[in-house]
Amino acid sequence: MTSILAALGYALAVQSAAATSSHHHAVDGATFDYVVVGGGTSGLVVANRLTENRRNTVLVIERGYFDDKPEAIIPWYSNAVDTSVLVSPRSAPNPKLNNSTHSVTVAAVVGGATVVNGMGCDRGSKADYDAWEELGNHGWGWNGMLPYFKKSTNFTPPSPDVVDRWNITWNPSVYGKGPVQLHISNFQYPDIDTIWGGFRQQPGVRFPPGSSSGFGPGAYWSANTIDARDMTRSTARSAYYDPVNKTRSNLRLVIGQTATKLIFDRGKTLRAKGVRIISGLDGKARNVYARREVILAAGAVMTPHLLQVSGIGPASVLKAAGIKVVKDLPSVGANFQDHATVVLWFNLSTPSFPNPDSMSNNAAYNATVWEEYFNNRTGPVAAANSNSIIYYSLSQVLSPSAAVSIASRLLAQDARQYLPAIYSTNSALLRGFKAQRAILAQRFKTNTSSYTAQPLRGNGQSPSPLLKPLSRGSVTLNLTHPESLPVVQYNTFMNPIDEELAVAVVRRSRRYWASPALQKLGPTERQPGAEYQTDSQILDYLKANPFALFASLAHPSGTCAMMPEKLGGCVASDLRVYGVEGLSVVDASVIPLISGTSLQATVYAIAEKAADIIKARG
């Protein structure tokens, strides 16, 4: 194994200190047109697009380093998470999950989450993005986002014989010739035939071409971020940074540098003018400055933290932490959303060979497939997590009448009972949630938006994310050590309807596995187990077993929401922070209402659109 990887030419060691310290001394006190905080998904996109104009100088600040290990390059490794490139604070105790705590996934690496995620790159439904526009963000609906979905991506289909063998479909009109490479692998496990047989037996399920056309509920062939030219992981680094690194002297990236505080000019108006950074190498603090804008791209956990530690956020939290209030903005860190995920497991008595478990339980096969990848860039090592997925609307999880009933009960709730305390003291935040709630209630009654999904690999693992959460969490300062990692509160199941629907999702997954087509695999439910039948039995099991219910699918969003200020927004539709000049946010924290799929494609498109918005300001 080691010799194979060495022969592939991949570095097997973390970057040396010499490599990481090449630029940080030189930027001390320097001024750039734009300073971007975060060298991940959105930060590298925006930096690339702004430096297309040679007159624009851009500095990108990244707390992590370059990662050239096999885990960052070979698609197969997307089946696990490389924790060596993460900052992983523990969450606050989750009250509705027996006060359990959870690891919070925050990437700290050049390329951000695109280096460590599961490589899924689906888009949400048209209705998901139209909801953003309904919340007051003109130009951010599906029609406004589609050009940027296309601009960011390039899809390479499988070989013609594979397309025919598996009846693989896609919609070429929704892709462009962008830098992010998407691909459906030529390798598929034989039991994928059976998986699709089960898809076809689900009542009312549609089969649109491809998962990127905005159709929402349906069964799809789903592309991964694979570069088909060499069957490696396509990341924000490989797509947006590496191709221009040596040719754009106006683009600078410093690594191993943590942004600790924003620097403001308090003249007639409040304006962000720079960033204080601390080196992970020598521990020294340095200041860098921006002529035009400071652009925050640190993600939905670290962006609100940086704002709060700089004095922008809810005044009550800042004062409690001993932070001087620069701008009272209660929306910073509120509206936190993620995709909690129910996971069922089935033992399969008669799986085909090979299957997704063969590499771990058959040493001879494992050695063979690594050699195959080394020699030909084919086989399971060249494939990512899954290409087969089915999305369900709430009506398909329950029934049309039951979905209507859920929507009615949602609208009848006293929202304040099921939201963090700050919503009771801030009328704008409460109005914003009620506006979101009205949209969700409407979506629940239709088949235009997905409530859950099943991405299936061909073994007995059956995860189902809860794509439209009603509960809202928060990201706030650690009150005793405000400059340390933030406090993340998921508040999973804070709204009891989320609990009820999680049980319904378990039942929906069971119905799929009871399909006649699946019986050739001999499935027997292992988790939770057939003995868990009543709603209370299922719910108690989920709450007590962290492997059966993930509080997070590493899809954090919403903590600097793009909404009107009167609805508790943090940034306007032009992405500028309310009340502060020269300060923008361009990452997943601006998402006002989480989309019903993985967030990678959405964040790429947000960043592409953000770059055009910022360039238009001149």
UniProtKB/TrEMBL annotation:
UniProt-listed SUPFAM superfamilies: FAD-linked reductases, C-terminal domain (SSF54373), FAD/NAD(P)-binding domain (SSF51905)
Keyword Flavoprotein: yes
PROSITE patterns: GMC_OXRED_2 (PS00624)
Cleavable signal peptide: 1-19
Pfam families: GMC_oxred_C, GMC_oxred_N
Domain Glucose-methanol-choline oxidoreductase N-terminal: from-to ranges: 299-313
Required cofactor(s): FAD
Ligand binding (FAD): T41, S42, V109
GO molecular function: flavin adenine dinucleotide binding; oxidoreductase activity, acting on CH-OH group of donors
InterPro entries membership: FAD/NAD-bd_sf, GMC_OxRdtase, GMC_OxRdtase_N, GMC_OxRtase_C
Coiled coil, from the record: none
UniProtKB keywords: FAD, Flavoprotein, Signal
Any single GO BP term: secondary metabolite biosynthetic process
Similarity field: Belongs to the GMC oxidoreductase family.
Name of the protein described by the UniProt record: GMC oxidoreductase
Organism: Cercophora samala
Lineage, highest ranks first: Eukaryota, Fungi, Dikarya, Ascomycota, Pezizomycotina
